[in-house]
Amino acid sequence: LSRRVPQPAGQDEIAQLARTANETLDRLERAVARQRQFASDASHELRTPIAGLRANLEDASMHPDDNDLPAVVTSALRDTDRLESIVTDLLLLARIGTGGTSVQEPIDLGALAEAEVRRRAFALKITTEAVRGVRVRGVRMQLVRLLGNLLDNAERYADSSIKVEVTRADGLALLTVTDDGAGIAPGDRERVFERFTRLDTARSRGAGGTGLGLAIVREIAQVHGGTIRIEDHAAGARFALRLPLE
Ligand code: ADP
């Protein structure tokens, strides 16, 4: 894969063909490298709860009569939960792009947002402003999941309020989720969408997420032909999803 076609000078067809071939090889090489990195990151993420689980089970088998046994079991269950959520998210991430049985249908984005917000009992103040008739084409389950992940994060990082808006802008459907938390520095706004990225803030460390939430969000946005960006906002974080209108 690291071999390249010798590049003849000039602009004739052969030279262009060689250039295209080499560019394709470059892209393939980068994709393989990303895939390798991902496998290594995923293994690393899985190792931590496995190590915890093993330590607890060893403890339990060596001191079966210990009074602390219930605490050991609780801790083992917590590690099992963590393993389960990482594996569930990894599977979801792997499946999004492959299509499979997921059905595309016309979806009223505003209605979907209002229903999803209503379905969740928020402790925080959440407001929805949705224009009706903003229709997109997509896989309902996936769009619900996308919004759900943004709301989970907003709920985690907001100080006191969250706002969800759906509207049309520049010929696209626009959905924004805005919170009033600490926000995300401009330099971190690309990498938070990468798999397993967790910013080193006090809340992220305590939050115990998988670091896959926003990677899933971006993947779903992309298979729907859309984009997801973090935009400037007076305070807190604002995520903006743009999708083609139906
Ligand atoms: P996690 O499972 O850690 O929530 P995500 O992929 O959903 O993983 O988010 C990646 C990181 O982006 C989080 O750990 C956090 O540091 C940051 N982040 C996400 N949403 C917000 C938000 N609304 N406000 C501030 N930081 C956020």
UniProtKB/TrEMBL annotation:
Its EC number is 2.7.13.3. Residues 41-246 form the Histidine kinase domain. Coiled coil: none annotated. It catalyses: ATP + protein L-histidine = ADP + protein N-phospho-L-histidine. Residues 1-33 form the HAMP domain. It is found in: Cell membrane. The keyword Glycoprotein does not apply. This is histidine kinase. It comes from the Bacteria. It is an enzyme of class 2 (transferase). It comes from Actinomadura darangshiensis. The chain holds residues 202 to 447 of 447 of the full protein. GO terms for molecular function: phosphorelay sensor kinase activity. Signal peptide: none annotated. Keywords: Kinase, Membrane, Phosphoprotein, Transferase, Transmembrane, Transmembrane helix, Two-component regulatory system. The keyword Transmembrane applies. GO terms for cellular component: plasma membrane.
